[in-house]
Amino acid sequence: MHKKLTNQLIGVTSGRNFRELGGYETLSGKKIKYHKLLRTGNLADLSPFDLEFLKDYGVKYDVDFRSKEEAEKQPDRVPEGAKYYFDPVFSEDLTNSSKSINDLETEAEKDPNFGFDHMLFAYEDMIRSESAQKAYRKFFDYLLANKKDGDTLIFHCTAGKDRTGFGALLVLSALGVPLKTIKEDYLLTNITTKDFIDNMVQRLKDNNMSENVIQSLRDVQSVHAEYINHAIKILNDDYGSINNYLRDVMKLSSADIMELRRIYLEN
After folding, report:
1. How far apart are CA 193 and CA 188, in angstroms?
2. Across-strand partners of 31?
3. Which residues pair with 83 in a beta bridge?
4. If the chain, 267 residues long, is cut into consecutive pieces of 10 residues, what is the mean pLDDT of each piece?
5. What is the distance between the alpha carbons of residues 117 and 120, in angstroms, rounded to a whole number?
6. Is 96 helix (H, G, I), strand (E, B) or coil?
7. Strand ranges, E, within 138-254
8. Contact at 8 Å (CB) between 205 and 181?
């Protein structure tokens, strides 16, 4: 399974967690088209080579879920020919993916579960907050506008795992991808960013950080099945199902769902 899913990586070397959603199979047996939908980390550090690669890949839409502060601190390097869309899920980075070690150290020192518990809270806010709901609804507007074959839409946050992961949960659900595949795609972050996490942990140990801080930072910078399971439970408990959330909160009509599947699924 891991080898197959790792093939979702597209070969960007100067960014973290850049991967295709093309190739995933739906419950009806259709597959998502390639060169239509990429989920990624931020685009601030892209090399000239990778910018050219993404241009040639067909990137025409860059949807940025980050806060104003994050986007100003590390502005995207947008491939030539692509349009940039600022679509903040939160007014500040509630996932803490962009926070420094110093910002988290005080809280984490007192509580080894601080990072884990805070991530559960962030997912609750992604589902329930008005700003997040507005951002994800706008995301679907961009998805519906991406009609031309070979035109690719990138959606991302800072690490490409939480705000982006929930966005992927929504769009993959709308396309009819099984929940099992959606969870596997979500957890793929831990494989694609393993070197980044290992290096971070080693730096923390070299700086004599406590185990509590290391655990919290690991929980913030990686994903856990509990995070996405918590999100799915809230969607089911509060809204009845993911499909109900798409219809009632995202305001996607049956015609919208059919159009999304026409745009993104192979015939």
Report:
1. 9
2. 25
3. 61
4. 57 91 96 97 95 97 95 96 97 57 70 88 94 97 97 96 97 98 95 86 88 88 96 98 98 98 96
5. 5
6. coil
7. 152-156
8. no
